[in-house]
Design goal:
Number of helices of chain A: 12
Oligomer: homodimer
Helix content of chain A: 25-40%
CATH class of the largest domain in chain A: Alpha Beta
Shape of chain A: globular
Structural class of chain A: alpha/beta
Number of domains of chain A: 2
Strand content of chain A: 5-15%
Amino acid sequence: MIYFDNAATTFPKPEIVHETVLNHLKNSAANPGRSGHKMAFEAGKAIYEVRELLCQLFNISNPMQIVFTSNATDSLNLAIKGLLKDGDHVITTSMEHNSVLRPIKALEGKGVTNTIVDCDEFGVLDPKKIRKEIRSNTKLIVLTHASNVTGTIMPIEEVGKIARENNIYFLVDAAQTAGIYPIDVEKIGIDLLALPAHKGLLGIQGLGVLYIREGIEIDHFKEGGTGSKSEELIQPLFMPDRYESGTPNTPGIVALGAGIQFILNEGMEKIHKREEFLTEYFISKIKEIPQIKIYGAHHIGTQAAVVSINIGDEDSSEIGCLLDESFDIGVRSGLHCAPLAHKTIGTFEQGTIRFSFGYFTTEYEIDRAVEALKSICDSIEG
Amino acid sequence: MIYFDNAATTFPKPEIVHETVLNHLKNSAANPGRSGHKMAFEAGKAIYEVRELLCQLFNISNPMQIVFTSNATDSLNLAIKGLLKDGDHVITTSMEHNSVLRPIKALEGKGVTNTIVDCDEFGVLDPKKIRKEIRSNTKLIVLTHASNVTGTIMPIEEVGKIARENNIYFLVDAAQTAGIYPIDVEKIGIDLLALPAHKGLLGIQGLGVLYIREGIEIDHFKEGGTGSKSEELIQPLFMPDRYESGTPNTPGIVALGAGIQFILNEGMEKIHKREEFLTEYFISKIKEIPQIKIYGAHHIGTQAAVVSINIGDEDSSEIGCLLDESFDIGVRSGLHCAPLAHKTIGTFEQGTIRFSFGYFTTEYEIDRAVEALKSICDSIEG
């Protein structure tokens, strides 16, 4: 199958990721940090090394400020709900995923108000609109780094600056960009960074990461064994144990480490350029097909490797099924768990057909997809 | 290394578990249930099949009542905090793990009262003590199936009956028994069952399970993309989507499926008998060493493959280190995240040295451990 669903999860992974997981499972899969034997120490050390790799990638100074979660959604929930209290106000945008919007909407019932800033019909955010919505009780701004619908890169630098100037915490959802685009938490002024392991970072499913800037008070929502302060019936409040109760996802964490190591070895610039090239290549080819509508701004440099299209007014799910069944091409159609983004770009009813590329996507695969789309357009015409 | 830390995580896993994970990662690691292409369907189907295997193992009628979590601690937190409200009362025991005690203690701040019933010095629970503590507002009884410190099997049948007779929900923490001892949720009257994937069920770390009996209202604590009702900004309330936001741990889930399939193929009775035999074998050998104190009731039939000991008044951590460094034997010393259990058996200061066996433990390994313990005792004497 030709796999164009890398925005959901990257596939395939580098071979070293499989090898690392297998080697870990076979040789060192003890419970980390909870026992005094070699294999447990080894597992604990492996986890610490992945915290360090994350620090290297995102310019984080303290590895203990890295919290492992079960996915980026878990990270976003922890950040949003751990920070916001009755009376607080939060600003986000209409291009966010339901992993941001649903927790924020749920907090309305707890006295946390929100403003969802509209992006334009291309999914582009004007940072001035964020500034305009700041109130005296605005505590947090949440912004995706790139839309999972249109691939539009958001102005995190400008919004980070606005947040800093106004003493507002800044949470970035880097689900579509981590591992592909450089993110420097110090330079951009990111206070909280939510990541999935299994997308651009080339790890496997079942793991997320939340970076919490030192000194930010985030509630915890789970208590349990932490392998620390075992004599106490209250949760230890130090990092990262406070937020990491129970046995961690050690295989997932070592897989993430292998993914990051692969990225560092290849060079993120090379990965990023390759994905930009593939995106541009695809867009330039489909622009020649008159029935195809391409959403988003699609200017290279402001577009991640995620492209949403439609064929005339055809139902996006039907075209998605056709691509799968007749051409063995896997895409994702529908609303992509981001209903307001589809309202923003005018596709709430039709949905879109989303093509998302990865570092291992080939030009040949894109050519096959373009042929398939042409063939579908022809059959509809005829 | 000789690995006697199976109560923390079982090691090694059956080869089929490694093969299944690797095959999944290499061939079908799409994002399940979120896209309309073959590989996504395949991943979704694989997850559903593991729900069915869990149903088969625990006599659960509806696979949709199975919720995947990040570990048993996550399951316990969800069950305890999702159920208990201001004004409710919960009963548990002094032999519980911090994954039960810490959430229950945290709820004191939210108006939920608790009674922690004392077990005797062998860690044995008298079910009548539970009955005596029932109040008009008692909503939940939480009980571990077997102590992670002494291996003592708890009377879940009797307590289940007491819970049913009094219309109280019954939550069982089966961290030490799932996959080894038969658990029939219908027969025992279990309303909520919390499990880790990576212990007796022979899956890998990073996954837990919570079974919720149909009709029980449990709050959810996270919202996000569920691949369902994407057009809505509120969390869908149907099972299991309500509790499973974001990308699931698909590799962990398929590994669990392989572990359960291995158990079903071997026969749980055979596994259970083998672990009982190993435990009896170990206990009978160390009984001959006068300096060794063995905790718990250690009657075969009421003892899981977890044995806590001490050598005279020696510090348990030092003996643990010695076993690791001088004999290459991995055990777990200290308080095992269960401080009240150690208070119950009188080892809160000293801790214990815990030997925990698995299906793949050999008699030879146990003999080596017995020799090591003799040697340590001799050196202390001398």
